[in-house]
Amino acid sequence: MFISRASARVADRAFGHIDLPKREDVKYVGRLYFSGRTNRGILRKWTNKSGHYRPDAESMSNADFA
């Protein structure tokens, strides 16, 4: 599983979600929402929204995480 901020920099180069799969097949994509100031790092919500590619929400089990 690969997770990235919406916009990041790696080795002084822009790095985005399109760079994550490294030419491999993608099983599932979406947005993750984590808790804020208290209890940081707790996954609060996971959606199938990722821009133009939106898999069926039922496909989340393909991510081996749900």
Written description of the protein model:
The protein is mainly β and 66 residues long. It has a domain of 41 residues. Helix content is 0%, strand content 23%. The chain contains no helices and four strands. The strands form two sheets. The chain has a two-stranded antiparallel ribbon with strand order 1-2. Strands 3-4 form a two-stranded antiparallel ribbon. The N and C termini lie close together (12 Å). The model has no long low-confidence stretch (mean pLDDT 76).
Keywords:
single chain, mainly beta, 0% helix, two-stranded antiparallel sheet, 66 residues
Multimeric state of these chains? single chain
Uncertain spans: none
Number of helices: 0
Q: SSE order in H/E notation?
A: EEEE
Query: How do the strands line up in the largest sheet?
Result: 1-2
Structural class per helix/strand content?
A: mainly beta
What fraction strand? Answer: 15-25%
Total number of beta strands? 4
Task: Report the principal-axis shape.
Answer: flat
- The averaged pLDDT comes out at 76
